[in-house]
Amino acid sequence: MTVEETIQERQEQIDSLTAQLKDADPKQVKKIEKEIKKLEKANKKAEFWNNAAKKTESTGQKFQETGKAMQKAGLKTTAAVWTPAIYVGYKVIKKQRNKNETPEQELISLIKECEQAYKSKQIDEETMKSYIADYVNNHYREE
Fold first, then answer.
1. What's the total number of domains in the chain?
2. Per-residue DSSP letter, 143
């Protein structure tokens, strides 16, 4: 039974009791009026909490929609930030910074970084292989 149905049922009881007031003797009038007040108070409380629940539910849905939109925007931003051209540029700069490393250390760090980017789904497997192959073919032991 929903809250609205419960409120409607109480309202019908109030109407029935109000009709009984006309024909009731003075002793029963107080009991009936007390019962009517009790039912009206229960209806007011039920309406208040029902409205509060509806507002909370709608706010929760809005938060959920906002969260989904923010998540989509974040995914798009991540994809835009880590496009292959930018990733290669990042690798070149990083390589220049680490000139003191041996070629073997550079290759190992490149492989680790590519694996990490692949695991976090920033690049796909083909792109990872192409970065490593490009480094081995064009930069490894090129001093």
1. 2
2. -
Instruction: Give domain status of residue 73, yes or no.
Output: yes
33-91 residue pLDDT tens:
888 899 899 888 888 888 888 888 888 787 777 777 666 666 555 555 555 655 666 66
Q: Within 10 A of 12 (CB to CB), how many other CB atoms are there?
A: 11
Parent domain of 105: 82-138
Kindly tell me the sign of the dihedral angle through the C-alpha atoms of 86, 89, 93, 98.
positive
Helices 84-97 and 125-138: crossing angle, nearest 10°? 40
DSSP string, 59-102: HHHHHHHHHHHHHHHHHHHHHHHT-HHHHHHHHHHHHHHTTTS-
CA-to-CA distance for 85 and 78, rounded, in angstroms?
Answer: 14
**Residue 24 within a domain:** yes
Q: Does residue 91 share a domain with residue 75? A: no
Q: Is 47 helix (H, G, I), strand (E, B) or coil?
A: helix
